[in-house]
Write a structure and sequence with these properties.
261 residues, alpha+beta, eight-stranded mixed sheet, two-stranded parallel sheet, 7 helices, 30% helix, globular, Nucleotide-diphossugar_trans, DUF707 domain-containing protein, DUF707
Length: 261
């Protein structure tokens, strides 16, 4: 199903079973879709809501759907291919893991179980940019299944990160975080290794073995200097998040880890 925000009233797509037309942002369009056509997706078990600049193929997507259902994910996203433009380095594929359970799933390409989507669909109407929802959703659906990033499958984000109005985006981010009393801090709580299939849990103080695997499988961009390396460390040592500090805005990366082909 295609949520179309363009101006061509006669636009058609041979691959779309249904086209929903709404001029506005992704989340404004999806909110209108859920109000108008929620019944159309009621028989689906999982629903993926990617941005329009995500590149993948049918086989990868089908296998991803099968995997998240088998592993009982309530909310998940495929990881980003190493060539991708990215805003959060956490979302880059970590080849040491099959998946990482996190407190964050990016609004760029979230996949919901039907039950989880029903729980959070009201949030679509409260935002234009979606900023902050990726921190708010996990807590709301955690009782329904796993939440995290699936490293076994990756997709390519093909365009630089951007926003038509960053002032609105930052405002919405802080409003959402304040509403749920959250920080813009990403934590990896548990992960399954891709080799032996062993699960490592972080715990409040962190788990050295989990961090060792994280470093081994992470993309070199995550270890290129002390600052980025410390960012990786923070994700796997939760107590670093409990220190009192003023929340600092996270930075958007405007460059891919290597040139797009």
């Amino acid at each position: 199903m295609l949520s179309y925000y363009g101006k061509d009233e006669n636009y058609a797509d041979v691959f779309a079973k249904s086209i929903h037309r709404f001029k506005g942002s992704k989340w404004e369009g999806l909110n209108d879709f859920m109000l108008q056509k929620a019944q159309s997706i009621s028989h689906y078990r999982y629903i993926w809501l990617p941005d329009d600049d995500i590149l993948t193929d049918v086989q990868t997507l089908n296998e991803f759907f099968e995997y998240v259902e088998r592993e009982n994910f309530a909310l998940a996203q495929p990881s980003l291919d190493e060539r991708s433009y990215f805003s959060h380095a956490t979302t880059l594929q970590n080849k040491a893991f099959d998946f990482r359970e996190t407190n964050f799933v990016e609004v760029m390409a979230p996949c919901f179980s039907s039950n989880a989507l029903h729980v959070i669909k009201d949030s679509f109407g409260k935002t234009k940019t979606g900023w902050g929802l990726d921190f708010a959703w996990p807590g709301r659906v955690a009782t329904l299944g796993k939440v995290g990033i699936v490293d076994r499958f990756s997709v390519l984000h093909t365009r630089p990160i951007g926003s038509a109005d960053h002032s609105i985006a930052w405002s919405e981010l802080h409003q959402t975080l304040a509403q749920y009393r959250l920080r813009a801090s990403i934590k990896v709580r548990q992960a399954r290794t891709s080799d032996a299939g062993k699960i490592y849990t972080s715990g409040r103080l962190g788990n050295p073995m989990l961090f060792i695997h994280a470093v081994r499988g992470s993309h070199p961009v995550r270890r290129k200097n002390l600052i980025t390396y410390f960012g990786l460390l923070k994700e796997y040592v939760p107590w670093l998040h409990y220190t009192k500090r003023k929340m600092q805005p996270y930075r958007l990366s405007e460059s891919p880890s290597r040139p797009l082909e």
